[in-house]
Amino acid sequence: MAKQISELKLGILGGGQLGRMLIQQAINYNVTTLVLDPDPDAPCKHISNYFENGSITDFDTVYNFGKKADIITIEIEKVNIEALEQLEKEGKKVFPQSRVIRLIQDKGVQKQFFKENDIPTSPFQIVNTKEDMENCNIPFPYILKLRKDGYDGKGVMKINSAADLDKAFDAPCIVEKLVDFEKEVAVIVARNANGDVKTFPMVEMEFNPEANLVEFLISPSTFAESLQQKAENIAKNIASAMNITGILAVEMFVCRDGELLVNEVAPRPHNSGHQTIEGNYVSQFEQHLRSIYNLPLGNTGSITNAIMINLLGEKGFDGVAKYENLEKVLSIDGIYVHLYGKKYTKPFRKMGHVTIVDIDREKAIEKARFVQKTLKVIA
Amino acid sequence: MAKQISELKLGILGGGQLGRMLIQQAINYNVTTLVLDPDPDAPCKHISNYFENGSITDFDTVYNFGKKADIITIEIEKVNIEALEQLEKEGKKVFPQSRVIRLIQDKGVQKQFFKENDIPTSPFQIVNTKEDMENCNIPFPYILKLRKDGYDGKGVMKINSAADLDKAFDAPCIVEKLVDFEKEVAVIVARNANGDVKTFPMVEMEFNPEANLVEFLISPSTFAESLQQKAENIAKNIASAMNITGILAVEMFVCRDGELLVNEVAPRPHNSGHQTIEGNYVSQFEQHLRSIYNLPLGNTGSITNAIMINLLGEKGFDGVAKYENLEKVLSIDGIYVHLYGKKYTKPFRKMGHVTIVDIDREKAIEKARFVQKTLKVIA
């Protein structure tokens, strides 16, 4: 008999909400979980078999942590790649593979990869200086993105004209053509070591314009089946081209002309897949586990309409988090609250999410809007 | 604003699979969980905020543990009641209440309670000696049950004739009339401190005749709606008569004449409700939390057909558990594996369960039979 799941310890770099939801699933398979996080009170702290408080970007810390595990995965891309490469050399399984994380850590390399693999994406140019920006071939207004370390809407700005260049990032960036899109959508794809590939149905997203965070997500999408199929195929193509083991979230723009352009990818459980916990036969977290343990991939089909709302810290509140009107929200049918175990709130901090399900799509939306304006994270 | 869930620490007496699944749910509400269990490697050990290895039947241990919590609940009835009474006196919330646990700990008192509250149950007689048994009014063959400490089929025997009395339990027992039943069914009912009461749909059970454990459970039942309604009303009546806060599993016999007779009740999450995790809008674990934190009760409706199979340790195997054919089982759609984190298996030990869902009931049964004969817990 092959090695049992329970015999292969899982090391997770990052102990935030994504790790937390992954562990909630891993409990069902008796997985021994080891977590490394720089926050001594990280959301995974009390639910993992072993928690280490330390840097995920320091070579020695990551390397020594990784030695304790059999399979190493991530819940955030900003990790020490060299340590992961060394661990791979020594026979540890790192999923997603270090080369995939390296590729994705750098938005310039990521864009280049799309181009080389015929993955549709918006025109772009790599820039290193303000001079490069002034002289680039992309017309104003455009989007400027830091090549590295951007996340959750940070590291992205719109440059309307040369006058804006004063406040532009002073670091290696990519300039992207501004896309006139109708909707942002996402497809999560999973690939196990056997090379089996499965996508979740496409979902639609709405962003908080102020925080540039996903605020509202609806699954499944109501775009034409043909467009959804195209989006799923793009996701599969990326996963195959990358030879990734694990899950990959692919964010895309649906342009006004119906074209699909890949915006960004993330090689891990993603905010655009939280609704799969209740809305789909298998969740993104279960699917990620199945991928990295090389198990058969699960049925990604939608069970019903599912809407996901991020619970962001309210503006104006800093301190020990309180969840206002939780009872009101729980009195509605089909509401699933997921709090992330973060003691302190601050404006726009991701404190939890709520999934709302209903067989009637309009009712689901109505309930979601109610939750959105009712449940508040204050201090 | 009232006290937040996250401000009220939950103490759980018992750290087995029921506590484990309760905690998996409690994580979503940022509940701080404290667990007391005599097994230093109990299934809850690594997923609780605080784990204490100690006796749940010792006054001092339970009392001192309970002092650390705000709300105390149980996952097994055999706990020290006096300590819980003392904790209640000192203002701790104990749900289910100590008097409910006391009532249920003794099958004689439980039966008496049913009788006094017009809850239909089989005729019975309380016996203390073999002489009592010989002279009792219930004709052979009958069922003999220990009044205390029976669980999972232990503490129950069939007495066919006076000749069997030699091997009868030598302790206070109840003699129950043998019921000629068609099926064993169960209804889980929840009641919060506000007095709101909700039942889950009735489920049908099949028992392993050798181990006398639930082996196969199907939800929802296909008995006539009127019978199901009657079963739900019986469950509600018991919960209200007991004034219980928390959930209560009510096991009943459907007799060949269509009559319903209550067999036993358990004031906690129960094996007959595991399929609610995937099969119903709200799970028994979530509902128990909502009850004891006095939150609105959730929608108990069935989402689809759900079948639950207990994964019992195979006969002939003792040692470190291995799960044979897990991959084969995971290649089927709609399979949810829940392993309980127990390192060692032994014959008939509850090692996990699998829930199988399918919108086609016959297909669900077919898949469940396949899982039952395929997935084995060996050593």
TrEMBL record, chains A, B:
Per the record, the pathway is: Purine metabolism; IMP biosynthesis via de novo pathway; 5-amino-1-(5-phospho-D-ribosyl)imidazole-4-carboxylate from 5-amino-1-(5-phospho-D-ribosyl)imidazole (N5-CAIR route): step 1/2
What SUPFAM superfamilies does the entry give?
Glutathione synthetase ATP-binding domain-like, PreATP-grasp domain, Rudiment single hybrid motif
Q: Where is the ATP-grasp domain?
A: 111-293
Q: Which InterPro entries match?
A: ATP-grasp, ATP-grasp_carboxylate-amine, ATP_grasp_subdomain_1, PreATP-grasp_dom_sf, PurK, PurK_C, PurT/PurK_preATP-grasp, Rudment_hybrid_motif
Database matches in Gene3D superfamilies: 3.40.50.20, ATP-grasp fold, A domain, ATP-grasp fold, B domain
Residues that bind ATP, according to the entry? 107, 145, 176-179, 184, 263-264
Per its record, what are the GO molecular function terms?
Answer: 5-(carboxyamino)imidazole ribonucleotide synthase activity; ATP binding; metal ion binding; phosphoribosylaminoimidazole carboxylase activity
> What keywords does the record list, in alphabetical order?
ATP-binding, Ligase, Nucleotide-binding, Purine biosynthesis
Which is a GO BP term held by this UniProt record? Answer: 'de novo' IMP biosynthetic process
Per the UniProt entry, the Enzyme Commission number(s) are 6.3.4.18
> Which family, according to the similarity comment?
Belongs to the PurK/PurT family.
Stated role:
Catalyzes the ATP-dependent conversion of 5-aminoimidazole ribonucleotide (AIR) and HCO(3)- to N5-carboxyaminoimidazole ribonucleotide (N5-CAIR). Catalyzes the ATP-dependent conversion of 5-aminoimidazole ribonucleotide (AIR) and HCO(3)(-) to N5-carboxyaminoimidazole ribonucleotide (N5-CAIR).
What PANTHER family does this protein map onto? PHOSPHORIBOSYLAMINOIMIDAZOLE CARBOXYLASE, PURINE BIOSYNTHESIS PROTEIN 6/7, PUR6/7
User: How does this protein assemble?
Assistant: Homodimer.
Protein's UniProt name: N5-carboxyaminoimidazole ribonucleotide synthase
Q: Which organism is it from?
A: Pedobacter terrae
